[in-house]
Amino acid sequence: MSEDKELLKDGKRIDGRAKDELRDMEAEAGILKRADGSGYFRMGGTEVIASVFGPRELHPKHKQKPQRGIIQCRYNLAPFSVDDRKRPGPSRRGKEIGKVAEGALSSIVFLEEFPTATIDVYMEVISADAGTRCVALNAGAIALADAGIPMKGLISSCAAGKIEDTPVLDLKGEEDKDGQVDLPIAMNIETGEITLLQMDGMTDIDEMDEMLDLAIDGCKKVAEKQREALMETFGDKK
Amino acid sequence: MGKKLVEDKSNVLPGDVIAEGDMLSGRGTYKENGKVKSKVLGVARTKKNRMRVIPLSGGYIPQEGDNVIGKISGIGPSHWWVELDSPYDGYLSLAEGSDEFIDLDETELSDVYDIGDMIYTEVIKVTSEKDVKLSMQDRICKKLTGGRIIRISPSKVPRLIGKGGSMVEMIKDRTDSRIIIGQNGIVWVNGGDEDLAVEAVKTVDERGHERGLTDKVEKILDKR
Q: In the predicted model, what is the mean pLDDT of residues B94-103?
């Protein structure tokens, strides 16, 4: 925490947003031709392209589950996505986020329909400005739906956090760096099931509740955006 | 009685509630807490009191009774493995492979179907572990020689066939080609104006979900 930076001024944040305001969003489905399904999602300065392949045969064979399929996620920061340069290749952080993304997406897919098979989700962060795992999941959910994978619903995700002792929605880079708490969640809006919840920093129960409420409201707005993007794939205009 | 909550032919996303009450859940839907919801991105349809969602995209999962086109990918002591463009390979046993008696002492299996051969075959059994058994016993099943193979999205196969086969018959008529369509999205085109037939099939694949598809395909066929 640095004291010199002012993250909140007269109830406004450094980019002029209110406490419960998301960054501007953009979403598109079916942007890649060679993938079975694909999605793009942007929140402020964070952009992710996700592609889905499968269901397809899973190798190595020992990973196969006889009764159900599995989801394999890859989360990758592109070398040019951050200030300076990210050394390409797998990293501890990338593997971990891939792992939690698998958990977040597995719960909504009807995996029992694809015994022994795999559905691969590749999430490439092309520009990072905090909240990359949330945006990655949003793009991933669009890509899964675009690939025609049977699902219970969509996964929508966004983060809440705490800056200068105030709970706020959807942190951007500076707020994440100099703030106190970052709390990304992912959920299915229709059922209210939360499928991912992580937290950095320290808080108490009351503030936690407040942040959760903020994040859940945020997810609802994200879900609308995802819906719009997917509806466009029907292309009824012509 | 159940109640429909969306118009027929409306676009739905996974998780959308499309009916409630006594309505039955058909393909592409699931039932939860007395509500019928869509499983996939697609178009909702009703037949009597059964809701269905026709998916817009998606891969092929073998189902009993499907006629598919596959590629021989392996030969065992008395069976063939067949690639079906699906996560699950098909198993074609010697007994199901041919009407005629094959004497293994005299003939090699590769003389019947060799690796790389394309066959039009029938799915006769799918177990819960998705072991797929194929058969060539049906009259329409055969080895495909010559011609061209094109792949389209399996979800567009019903559009390519059309109501009572109208779409594919139209393409066949106008191009004099022979066309065989596998449920798994592999299409075999042979003879006649192959280029034109292929173009028409690809158009169905690309614009299959749009309205007025027949007119668009007719326009392409008129170019000849």
A: 88
A195-230 per-position pLDDT tens digit: 999 999 999 999 999 999 999 999 999 999 999 999
Architecture label for domain B148-222: 2-Layer Sandwich (3.30)
Q: Give the number of A-B residue pairs with CB atoms closer than 8 Å.
A: 94
Q: What is the ipTM of this complex?
A: 0.89
Contact criterion met (CB < 8 Å) for A116 and B210 = no
Answer for the pair B123, B81: CB distance below 8 angstroms, yes or no. no
Same fold, B67-144 and B148-222: no
Residue B142 CA to residue B139 CA, distance in Å, equals: 8
CB contact A148 to B (< 8 Å): yes
User: What are the beta bridge partners of residue B142?
Assistant: B120
- Can you give the pTM of this predicted structure? 0.93
User: Is A113 within 8 Å of B14 when comparing Cβ atoms?
Assistant: no
B59 touches chain A (CB under 8 A): yes
Closest alpha carbon within chain A to B12: A231
